[in-house]
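<given_protein>
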Amino acid sequence: MAQNNNKQGAPEVVETLSKNEAFVLKYKNAIIAAVVVVILAIVGGIYWKEHLATAQAKASTEMAKAQEAFAQAMQLNTPEAFQLALNGDSLGHTGFLALTDASGKAGNLANLYAGLCYAHLGQMEDAAKYLEKFDLKGDQMVSPAVLGALGNVYASLDQLDKAVSTLKKAAEKADNNALSPQFLIQAGEILESQGQKAEALKLYQEVKDKYFQSAQYQLIDEYIERVSE
């Protein structure tokens, strides 16, 4: 697979990309950005504000250990580290896969983390399987970030129509300057690759009209100009 030499900054000309190779590289990397948002939110305690029931205490303890393994995997960024977080080991560390059947929040989080581990391992079909199992909540950070990660997984699987609809849903659910512009632009770039410039323009214009305080706002005119030609 070719190396990704794109620089951060000016928009790339999507028409020049190979859909079967460049999109895999682009959106596999984009998952990482969504993952960071998810992890920061979870570490901040969004899902652990309420105490788990007594029946879930063991799962909660095992989840905490698995989360530590995942945090280390994020630092090391090696397949072995993500495999450990996913599958556990013989030393008593339970992996996320063993926790996916747990009831309540622990099982729900285990599905999320399992999907993210598979995404980092490049096993996108399994990533989609577990991310789809995650029970989306009403918050404006974790749930949209999970949807965005899932949209990126679909893109890497060449399920481009599904990717676009999922990214648009993620942007709508988030409705904030931190996540929505990122997901709208990703969806627009996929539409461009399919020759749907008019549809891409709508999404870029939404960023310009609605998310003028976002980091992407400084570059959005370049996207709009490209699809307006």
Notes: Confidence is low (pLDDT under 50) at residues 1-20, 44-55. The two ends are 32 Å apart (CA to CA). The CA atoms of residues 100 and 209 lie 41 Å apart.
